[in-house]
């Protein structure tokens, strides 16, 4: 028998977008009003894949030279810090933990931090640490998309809200 209330779908959200100081530089990235409403409604499952994967806060900036998140998943390129340290294992672990949350909560929509080597969904940095952005996606985004999750950034909250409404 159907209930009168529709299932309330959960949304995976980058912890930095919820005001948690977990970015590489030890800061948060804001807390947009829509995310506050979703959080108050109990819809949000927060995660910082980089911290979940074992990286500290603050931490050196990391980028993906010569590739994108899917290339890291395929073992073709590495995620490295500005000092050249390979942090691919931590990025892969964080992505796997995000995937486990998605599966556990039946999540089909994520709002992740734009530009991040983990969470970027449209643009990432080119791996030269020069501030140059290129079309692409981070490691966690690539893995979640393989699972069929729609990934949006904090710059696309209206589209994320519309996609969530389509699930109801």
Output the helix-strand order: EHEHEHEHEEEHEH
Helix content: 25-40%
Oligomer: single chain
Uncertain segments are 1-6
Radius of gyration: 16 Å
Give the CA-based shape. Answer: globular
User: Total number of β-strand segments?
Assistant: 8
Largest sheet: 4 strands, parallel
Main features:
168 residues; alpha/beta; two-stranded antiparallel sheet; 8 strands; 32% helix
Describe the structure.
- This protein has 168 residues and is an alpha/beta fold.
- The chain has one domain (11-167).
- Helix content is 32%, strand content 15%.
- The strands form three sheets. The protein has a four-stranded parallel sheet, sandwiched between helices.
- Helix 4 packs parallel to helix 5 (139-146).
- Residues 1-6 have low confidence and may be disordered.
